[in-house]
Amino acid sequence: MILFLSRNESVNLLDRAAGERSLHIRKMSGNFDLSEFIIRDMRKYASCRYFCVERLAINENDDDFWEALKSFQMMYSARVIVLYESASEIDSFTRGLVQIGVTDIVTAPDINEKLAQIAECLSAEGMTKYKPAAVRKREPNEPDEEKTTLAQNIVLKEMEDEQYRFDCVNVNIGIIGATRRVGTTSLALGLAGFIKNHGGTACYAAFNTNGHLESIASSYSFDTEEDFYTYDAVDYYECMMPKHDYNFVIYDYGDMQRDNIRKFKESHVHLLCGASGKKFEVLEFAEALKQVKSVNPRIFTNTPNPKYEQLFNSAVSNEPTIIKPVGNMFDWKVNGIVYKQIVQPFIVETSKRL
Predict the structure, then answer these.
(1) Which residue among 52, 260, 320, 325 is the one 20 to 30 A from 183 at the CA level?
(2) Secondary-structure percent of the chain, ordered helix, strand, coil, rounded to 5
(3) CB atoms < 10 A from the CB of 9, how many?
(4) Is the pLDDT of residue 191 over 70?
(5) Can you tell me the distance from the alpha carbon of 71 to that of 173, in angstroms, rounded to the nearest whole number?
């Protein structure tokens, strides 16, 4: 199913392309506050495969529009498609969408070109021109990626039943992003879930300005305990110090604002997230690393774009840890190997789940 938010005059734009692919459309026309719609109404349409939004039907400014879509991507797995004929392929609006991972973008003003772009967005592969270049071919002596993945899957399966004993108390793990929308929240939430599901205690503390925690708490029906949230035996704090002791306190500092950098440097463990799919993202990543190089953070990114591999290796001096994208931000299994590496120095004893 396609969920389509549009103006009244655009409500039938998807009909032809959807009909060709035998896709049902749930049409909603008018003017929308996208962030409120995602929080209050989206759960009724959680099974949709495509979430199509016409920019001119949304009341928020561009920054809030991007933030709303980022929140959507953390909560749901549907492909996001944005229609905005006033945008171009290279303007700041389109660049902002690509930076948060939205690459199905319809900008053509001509109706025939527009319909062709919509059809491409609804195709199996989706629109390709905004996506990173294809991964380079493997060299003759290079490890087989499929075999490596299989080996990792075996390790992950064995790790699921592992239980760890931690004697540490309130180890501060600081996570910060080179820019906004680079996965700091997903990394933090996944890490907290991993610790909880492997015998430790952890809490998540949001010290950023994006306000995602309130939206997440509403969408996932968090319980409220005093003035903080709790969900699946993990406590969640919004811009406040934790009220209890835990093995680990995971601080999400958002992006590279001055106060955030100062607090980040005071952490016991330092994790820096950045994007590496576009040239400007690599340069922003390198600049962010310079600002926190004194604490020698461990850096995280999705698989770098091979097109900018040489630039990445020269600009981002630290060896990156590759994080796999997840459909559910509470997923602690997909990147379980990485999470274990982060807490490994604090593991006192390992046993198997009974």
Answers:
(1) 52
(2) 40, 20, 40
(3) 11
(4) yes
(5) 23
pLDDT greater than 50 at residue 142: no
Beta bridge partner(s), residue 273: 177, 300
Residue 354, CB half-sphere, CA atoms under 13 Å: how many? 0
**What's the length of the chain?**
354
The band of 154, judged by pLDDT with boundaries at 50, 70 and 90, is: low
Percent of the chain with pLDDT over 70: 90
Which parts of the chain fold into alpha helices (H)? 15-20, 34-40, 62-75, 92-99, 111-121, 145-159, 184-197, 212-219, 258-265, 279-292, 309-315, 336-343
Dihedral over Cα of 134, 139, 140, 141: its sign = negative
Report the topology of domain 2-121: Rossmann fold (3.40.50)
**What is the pTM for the complete model shown?**
0.62
What six digits make up the tokens of 171? 């180890």
Indicate the fold that domain 150-352 takes in CATH: Rossmann fold (3.40.50)
Domain segments of the chain as ranges: 2-121, 150-352
CA dihedral 342, 302, 123, 331 (to 10 degrees): 10
Torsions phi, psi for 10 (to 5 deg): -110, 5
